[in-house]
Every structure is written in structure tokens, then in C-alpha cells.
């Protein structure tokens, strides 16, 4: 899951980026409103973490501009402005949630998971596809009830597939979900992680769609087509 953090406070930004990376997210970090708008226009992010007191263009203006141009990315506002009027203004401008500084990184991660769950149309926090279940909060993966140990990258890749069962994802799309700007990407990294997941979850769990990409079958759609 790739996120964009917009925060001009260096200590806060570094702490949030480090904490979310440890939680399995790929995080790009910019420090002003203008750069944030350019990043959202160029990259495919699952969620935007937006401070309000930004240089060049404040967060509220960035938010209004994104919504005015039809951008539907979930936005979680992170700010020290704790007045009710500020929260109302942010939510009315199109924010999906609001978190007051200082905040706990565990609560931030939980709110991010809730927004991503809502964005995907799921109510259940546990993702289940076929015999595989994935818990984003605890990073537990089970195959037919038995726990499967995955690396952080393997877990992130599996979640990308399970969030969109039945969809074909190209290597470029998967790399965008796994890596931020500061991460180095080996040319065959996605293939290596897919090979590892097939060994742990079954050789036919992730399908290769020749010339296009990879997919995990959606059992619901498969059953409905019969």
C-alpha cells in the first residue's frame, strides 16, 4: 500500500514515515502543498496524509483543489488545529478523517486501515479469498486456518492481490504499491516475491496472465459465472 505524506515538520514527518514503513506501507513524503498536488497528479496513491499548515499552499486549499478536480483519494488530515471549526472545515472540504497532533502511531495506522477498508467497500477487517485469510492489523496470514509466515514485502504483495481478487495487476502496478521514491527496486523483485508466495500458498494461487501481469482468482466471481 503506497501512501503520500504531506508534512512540513521534519521530526513529525520522519517519525510518521518510519513508523508506517515498519507497519508495511510504502510512504512518499513531501513538505509543501504545491509538491503534494504534483505528486498526486503523477503517482497512484491509496491514501493521502495531509497536514493543514503547509508552505506554498495550505492543506485546506490542496484538499479543496483535489476534490474540485474529481480526485477521490481518501484523505486523512493530520494537524495541530484542534478547534471544532477547523475540524468541520476540513471534513466539509472533503477530508475522510481527522487526527489531532500529537497522535499515537498505532492509532494512525488503525485509521489508515479503516479508510482503506471503506474505500474498497469492505466492512470486515479480515480479508478472505478462497482458503487464504489476511489480517492487516496483526499482519497474520492463514492458509486453511494454519498460520503462514511472510516477509514484509511478501505480505504487502499478497495484500495488493487480495484487495482486488480477479483483477490482473501488471508488474509496474505491483511495484508502485510496494515501493516509494526512496526504495531501490531490483528488476526481478516482484517475480521473486510471487515465487515465494506460490511456495507458501500453493503454486496455482497466483495466476500468470501472459503478457499482462498476475492475478488471484475471485472465488465469488468464479462461482457466479457457472
Describe this structure as you would to a colleague.
The chain has 226 residues and is an alpha/beta fold. It has nine helices and eleven strands. The strands form three sheets. A five-stranded parallel β-sheet has the order 2-1-3-4-5, with helices on both faces. Helix 4 (84-92) links the parallel strand 4 and strand 5 (97-100). The radius of gyration is 18 Å and the shape is elongated. Mean pLDDT is 88; it is low at 221-226.
Key features of this structure:
alpha/beta; four-stranded antiparallel sheet; 226 residues; disordered C terminus; single chain; five-stranded parallel sheet; 9 helices
Radius of gyration: 18 Å
Biggest beta-sheet profile = 5 strands, parallel
Report the β-strand fraction as a percent range: 15-25%
Number of strands: 11
Task: Give the neighbour order of strands across the main sheet.
Answer: 2-1-3-4-5
Mean of pLDDT: 88
Shape: elongated
Q: Give the helix/strand class.
A: alpha/beta
Distance between the termini: 33 Å
Q: Could you spell the SSE succession in H and E letters?
A: EHEHEHEHEHEEEEHHHEEH
Count of individual helical segments: 9
Helix proportion? 40-55%
Low-confidence stretches: 221-226
Spell out the blueprint of helices and strands.
Elements: E1 2-6, H1 10-22, E2 26-30, H2 33-42, E3 47-50, H3 59-68, E4 75-79, H4 84-92, E5 97-100, H5 105-119, E6 127-129, E7 132-135, E8 140-143, E9 146-148, H6 152-163, H7 171-178, H8 189-201, E10 206-209, E11 213-216, H9 219-224
Parallel strand pairs: 1-2, 1-3, 3-4, 4-5
Antiparallel strand pairs: 6-7, 7-8, 8-9, 10-11
